[in-house]
Structures are given as structure tokens and as C-alpha cells.
Amino acid sequence: MSSSLSAASRKARMASASNVMYTNAVYWPNYRFYRGDTPGQLNYGCVNHVYYAFANVAADGGVFLSDEWADCTAPCDGVQGALGSLMHLKQRHPHLQVILSIGSSNSSETFPIVASDPVLRDNFARSARGLIEASDLDGIDIVWEYPCTPQQGNDFLALLAAVRIHLPEDRYLLTAALPAAKPVLQMIDLRRAAGYLDFVNLMAYDFFGPWTPKTGHHAQLYAMTKDETSGSSGVQHLMASGVAPKKILLGIPVYGRSFLHATGAGQKYRGVGGGEDGTFEYSELPRRGTKEQVDKRAIAAQCVGADGGFITYDNPDTVKIKATFCKQKGLGGLFYFCAPADAKDSKRSLIAAGFRALHSS
User: Where does the GH18 domain lie (predicted)?
Assistant: First the structure.
């Protein structure tokens, strides 16, 4: 496709996407390909952005695909590569925008180096543009985990400014994933950051886990005590710092966190169940023989017993309430990490529940 044609089609897609009232976005990590998941399995009737995750950053600022085989070569949905499949799906779904997500924990040591140097920032921006033009993508998402000093907060802004020179906002999307935790958010001039960004993807999850002394709802919308982080406290902080509500996407985890030898929030526990990081995919919840309940104060689902102890997660009921919260606050919508872990049954699907609730009157 010639660059002028692809620019025109991208502008048309940006325009059709802006007609969608709310964004319902998903992350699709390339490692899921090895579990038999493909982008073609998603229901694009209720998804309008896909963040293809994760590309890596080299020490010289260059951006590169982290798995060329899974991304571009392996047979997937009748084409080559999972990224190839998304490019193909974009032809069939004109509203769909695909954004390359760069970073995650693999790049947390590289980002501070690259962002602190004007030459490396420029390399990063040029390289990112080359990669997204080659794949006809719609923009990039920066996942630096996390700027943790005021200097790194300034460097983060300088990186966004450099990217915008090469990815002008009338043609490309630029987003960034940030945690809801105040200590990180306070390092960044969020009003200025929002001037460069189309969306802030607020990671409103992982508030509790194997690293915390007590159990808690890992994606609670409302905190149980004033010193806890919650989805609403993260949103409140962004808005108070000058981020326009419509630029905020509230994150929904498509997994639960397990605490063994515990029966609820605020308790001591011994060990975690599930994967090595103490998680169960949402599609595996509730555990067999347990009863799912919703904590109506925190807005969190849970099940207790079996091999998971106390497991905290989101279900369709909590996602509906979070979608209503988005509408009340005038937020841009929701995103989910990660799409392939969702339930296949549409009645049980978090992504479908969020889409329905965002777009119902």
C-alpha cells in the first residue's frame, strides 16, 4: 500500500473510531500464540483497539519485534504471523485500530537510558515510526514500568515529545500504560503528558499480590481503607492532575490473584495458588467447587476454597459497574489485559460485558 493511501485510510479509520462512543480495547500478547491463541478468535463486534504486545527497545533506542516468528512468520489464522493476522482483520473491520505496545518488564532497564538522551529518543521515535509504517499500524503504546524518579518523569515527557515529532497526532495514536499507584503518578507532570497522549491506559489492578503482607482485592474499584490504592483513586488522581477524563481508559485484569490459607480481604496468608506468580486466568474461574461472590463495597468478585484459597478477580457484574463508573466520570472507556484469557462463552465474557454496559443507555 502506498504511504499516501495508507495515510488516507488511517485518517478514515481514526475518524470512524472517533465516532465510537467509548473505547473497548484489549491487549494481545504475542506469547499467547504458543498457547494456541490467535487474534482471529476475538469478537471484533465489541473491540475497537488492539494493543499488540510487546515490542522491545534496544540500548540504542531502536524498537524491534520481540518474536519475529510468532509476529510475522508462523501460520496464524490463514496468514503469516499474529501481527499479520491483525493486519488482515483490519481490512475486514474498518473500525479496528491496531497499536504496537512497546516495553513491559523486558524494557524497564532500557527505557530510563533511552529517554534520558536526545539522540536515543530520536532513534526510538524514528525506529517506532519505521516499524508501524512497515506494518500499517495505527500508533504506539509506551509501557515503561515505571518512571520512578522526578528526573525519569521529565525524561518520559521528553520521550513523548520526541515521538510526537515523528508520529503526528492527526495520523497516529500515542498511548501510555501507567499504574494507578500515586507514588509513580506523582513523578510525572500528567497534564503535560496528556497533551501528547491520546489515552492513558490506567492499570487499575495488581494492588495486592505475593509482594503485599496482607490479602486484598487486586482490582478494587473502591478502597477499603484510606491508604489503599483503587481504580477510583487512580482516576481521581489523573483527573485532579489535569488529564481530560475522555483520555483515561480504566484497566480490567482478565486474571485473578490467589492467596492461600485466607478467606477474604485484609487477612494474613501463606503462599499463593495458580501459576508461579499466583494468578489464575479468568477463563479458569471460579474454581470448581467454589461459589462466586461479589464484594459490593470494593466492587470485586471472589471465590474461596479449592486450590486457590481466596481468589480476587473481575466478573461480568463488576465489569458492568466499572463501565457505569466510566460513563459517570466521562472516561474514554475500558481496556483488558489480556484478551485471550477471557471466557469463550459470551455470557461470561468480560470484554463483551464491558462493551454492552458502555454502550447501553
Answer: 22-361
Global pTM value:
0.95
Strands (E), 190-295: 199-203, 248-253, 255-259, 279-281, 293-295
What pLDDT was estimated at residue 5? 52
pLDDT in tens, 55-96: 999 999 999 999 999 999 999 999 999 999 999 999 999 999
Burial 139-173 (b: 16+ CB within 10 A, else e): bbbbbbbbbeeeebbbbbbebbebbbebbeeeebb
Q: How far apart are CA 294 and CA 221, in angstroms?
A: 12
Q: Which residues pair with 344 in a beta bridge?
A: none
The residue from 145, 169, 228, 292 that is catalytic is: 145
Q: What residue ranges do the domains of the chain occupy? A: 3-254+315-358
- Where do the H-state alpha helices sit in the chain? 3-18, 68, 82-92, 110-115, 118-135, 150-166, 182-185, 190-196, 231-240, 316-329, 350-358
Would you call 109 a catalytic residue per the annotation?
Answer: no
